Amino acid sequence: MTATSTKPLSELLAQTEFSDDDIVRLLGLTDPEECEALRQRAFDVTTEKTGNNVYLRGLIEVSNICTANCRYCGIRKDNHTVERYTLTEESIVACALHALHEGYGSIAIQAGERRDPKWIAWISRLLERIHKETVCEELPTGLGVTLSLGEQTYEVYKEWAEASGNPTGLRYLLRIESSNPRLFAELHSTPGKHEKILEHRYQALRDLRRAGYQVGTGVMIGLPGQTLEDLMRDIRTFGEMGADMIGMGPYITSNGADMTALGMMEKRPLMQLALNMISTTRLVMPDINIAAATALETLEPNGRVRGIRHGCNVIMPNITPQTTRASYQLYDNKAGTEVGPESNVLVERNIVEMTGRTLGLNLLGSSRRWAARTA
């Protein structure tokens, strides 16, 4: 190790600039007292740089039809055991209005990846309607919208941005899953019409920035064959692309995917690694939004609360109709598939009681980094 990586942890945590060795050391912490010191520092930096609010994004999983065959995913094209669905426009708008009435401020629209003209036009109409029906006194520009609809062309991103009608609350989450080209290729080794190539993913992220979105990305933590150095380079990649928000979580196997034989980390060390990754990313990029992934809750009860205590400032309560939730299983035993929207109240109450944070109700909750960049 270098001299920097062996300095007292208290001195390392007080820094605002971190070497690669510093980052690897923080990611690899396992001693409970040291992990707690990292957690507390990340929590304090979050308070200082992004405030005391936790922002809500009502998650609507609009369709599990997908043209891609990513090996880790439970709704991959070649999984013929899953029941495919697409919600109706009326159902989706009803979900959006539920979010509005609950004070969420923003929604997230997620689906399997499609690029056909009919789908693109349908999303545009949907965004226009959501905007029209959610402009109100509390939200004069309507609900904020985060899209997570895969790789598209710049022209499609621009069309959807214009349809959303809300440039100050417009976001797109496109995860890279890993910045290691070898790992990325192993995750997406599905040659064909929608073959995944890491450089194409980076180009899509650049196109999103050019189209006016707050740009979000992220990775899976604890992948088979992944090292602490890989995760460090993931954080460096977030910084190099100027990400405004990060959505990342632990890798959990899916019986509907193609990687079950490779296994996964044991839950306890995986949870600690995921929390270390959240906290370290917060220290390196203090003014971004970081979402507490549902996968944390799948590993451990109140996992999202732990995510907030380690540096997250966004949660995405699932407001998808309960009838289709079990069909949107990206990984096994996904938390929240068996309960209705009323369960979100428990999550929200736990956040307030267990973290000392407040809920940012009726607020778009845009990234501070994005606000500074576009001021």
Automatic annotation (TrEMBL):
Residues that coordinate or bind [4Fe-4S] cluster: C66, C70, C73
Keywords, comma-separated and alphabetical: 4Fe-4S, Iron, Iron-sulfur, Metal-binding, S-adenosyl-L-methionine
Residue span(s) of domain Radical SAM core: 52-289
GO terms, molecular function: 4 iron, 4 sulfur cluster binding; metal ion binding; transferase activity
InterPro entries noted in UniProt: Aldolase_TIM, Elp3/MiaA/NifB-like_rSAM, FeFe-hyd_HydE_rSAM, HydE/PylB-like, rSAM, rSAM_sf
Cofactor(s) recorded in Swiss-Prot or TrEMBL: [4Fe-4S] cluster
The record's free-text note on cofactor binding: Binds 1 [4Fe-4S] cluster. The cluster is coordinated with 3 cysteines and an exchangeable S-adenosyl-L-methionine.
Protein name in UniProt: [FeFe] hydrogenase H-cluster radical SAM maturase HydE
Lineage: Bacteria, Pseudomonadati, Pseudomonadota, Betaproteobacteria, Burkholderiales
